[in-house]
Prior knowledge:
By secondary structure, the chain is an alpha+beta fold. Helices cover 20% and strands 43% of the residues.
Amino acid sequence: MAQHLVSGTAKHDLAIIVDGIAVGNVGLSNIEHVHQTGWAYYWLAKGARGRGLATRGLATIADLAFTELGLFRLELGHRTGNAASCRVASRAGFRPEGIERQKLRYGKQRFDVETHARLTLDPVPDIELIPRTASLAGPRQPDLTRPDLGTA
């Protein structure tokens, strides 16, 4: 039983690096190997938004989850008013599944969350994945790095 509890808390954090500067992160948490599920998340600094980096990062972490970790289903959620995050999820192949009412609380205010999911059986979006290496030739190319271990 303890092994399942430990595997259920597994996490993968990757930094999105452009020109040697971390501009965001993407990752997996709540990995449950028995059911082959996980929770995907992403974040970008304001100046890095609007260039497709979040979509590419999310598609990359989904690829890692399905091909290397053997997961079957990934979920994610965003506040219902966050249209940009909804577009990121949809473009990366995550389908909307429903609204979780008042799931998040920031200060005294509660927010609804739209949940999306992608299965390993779903069509793979035609998105260029971000290389998982710390050294790339040429400027302005993003890469994913594990901040805790160096290169992923």
